[in-house]
Amino acid sequence: MAPGHPYTLKWGIMATGGIAETFCKDLLCNPEARGVHDVRHEIVAVASSSAVKRAAEFLQKIDGAFDAKTYGSYPELVVDPDVDIVYVATPHSHHFQNAMLALEAGKHVLCEKAFTVNAAQARRLVETAKAKNLFLMEAVWTRYFPLSIKIRELIAAGEIGTVFRTIGDLSINVNADDAKALTFADGHRMVNRDLAGGATLDLGVYPLTWVFQTLYHLQPEQDKEAPTVMASSTKYATGADENTAIICSFPGHGTLGIASTTLRADTDPEKLFPAVRIQGSGGEIQVFFPTYRPLKYRVVKRNGEARTFDCPIPGDPARNGWGHGMFWEADECARCLRDGKLESATLPWRESIVIMETMEEALKQGGISYPGLITTDVYDPKSPLNTGNQ
Ligand SMILES: NC(=O)C1=CN([C@@H]2O[C@H](COP(=O)(O)OP(=O)(O)OC[C@H]3O[C@@H](n4cnc5c(N)ncnc54)[C@H](OP(=O)(O)O)[C@@H]3O)[C@@H](O)[C@H]2O)C=CC1
Ligand SMILES: O=C1OC[C@@H](O)[C@H](O)[C@H]1O
């Protein structure tokens, strides 16, 4: 990179669904619109497992990167020599096999949340990235929000004294009219066990993110303590969890985290109450819904003094004001690669693994299980999850 020139990261996009579209629209935003001058992004290839036509249609949807190559399969994408990093945007069920496909082809990887279906798969991804000297990161975008960075700084600076407890929720009321079924069809990734559906892996990872970034991430390195986990779930008709509560206890630090998620009620129908409360001896920090894309936090001191801070997401005027907030995690990938780092200090590999251990244990205690095809930690390039027959 020439001095003074931004480092450019060249992306290959694996899958053309909802979040791939949102993420790519963020990649297409001018970084200067968010005050970023040191890195930039280019979408050089897009792959759909269903048809090359879908990849071409995707470029129309994102309204940009019209010169990007389009592929009708994931294996073609990962061998494209122009791709630096693959963004894995498939359902949870596919993450392990798809991320392995990319790593084995020598590509760096940003993999959507939930990272994998279980901890063994997460460990295998990390081992592979390490062995091949490749960058790997779980796409928990919330951690890279300036709001999250600020809150971690406030906690570290003692703004609310000693933190003892974090309570977080991410829930959506998707009851059908009769309140028996949910509005999702049984085959939808949110509830389909074959796609690792369920509230915990899809939504629970966000309240857990708040528990982990406030109670685990900030623990001193020499005292890192994984939580003991107590959890309970209720099951939907498909066998996926629809309602889960997880208590994370860090006894060595005297802290407790409580993360909950349900598909049967909203976190806050009136958008008045905090979705996350980080509670310390000197007060608390409240974070408001959406738990995954927060725009506002409030610091409430023990004496009742309170201040609210709005944190709007900067839009790009040249893209009709678009800006969703996923660009900050993309900037992190670019900076890590520019600086020769294989993992992000904001979400280190070890932490992603401990979070997967926590969710795996919670699901086990809740009696939730997933099929062998999507839980195996044995890589198979010919798995239908890679070849698109699943
Ligand atoms: N960070 C965030 O805010 C969000 C993250 N996510 C995460 O992103 C991932 C994808 O979610 P989302 O984009 O909403 O899902 P979608 O169903 O909209 O898209 C998933 C895409 O994966 C590909 N795919 C490959 N095999 C299958 C299969 N058997 N069934 C369904 N899709 C398949 C398809 O693309 P193709 O045909 O082109 O191969 C499909 O379009 C999930 O892991 C989810 O947790 C989701 C929403 C928000
Ligand atoms: O990651 C996510 O955040 C937003 C939710 O609506 C979505 O289901 C989930 O996958």
TrEMBL record:
Entry EC no(s): 1.1.1.179
Coiled coil regions in record: none
One MF annotation (Gene Ontology) recorded for this entry: nucleotide binding
UniProt-listed Gene3D superfamilies: Dihydrodipicolinate Reductase, domain 2, NAD(P)-binding Rossmann-like Domain
Enzyme class: oxidoreductase
Keywords assigned by UniProt, alphabetized: Oxidoreductase
Reaction catalysis annotation: D-xylose + NADP(+) = D-xylono-1,5-lactone + NADPH + H(+)
InterPro entries associated with the record: Gfo/Idh/MocA-like_OxRdtase_N, Gfo/Idh/MocA_domain, GFO_IDH_MocA-like_dom, NAD(P)-bd_dom_sf
Keyword set includes Secreted: no
Domain Gfo/Idh/MocA-like oxidoreductase N-terminal stretches: 10-137
Boundaries of every GFO/IDH/MocA-like oxidoreductase domain copy: 150-285
PANTHER family associated with the record: DIHYDRODIOL DEHYDROGENASE, PUTATIVE (AFU_ORTHOLOGUE AFUA_1G07520)-RELATED, OXIDOREDUCTASES
Protein family according to the UniProt entry: Belongs to the Gfo/Idh/MocA family.
Protein name: D-xylose 1-dehydrogenase (NADP(+), D-xylono-1,5-lactone-forming)
Organism: Trichoderma cornu-damae
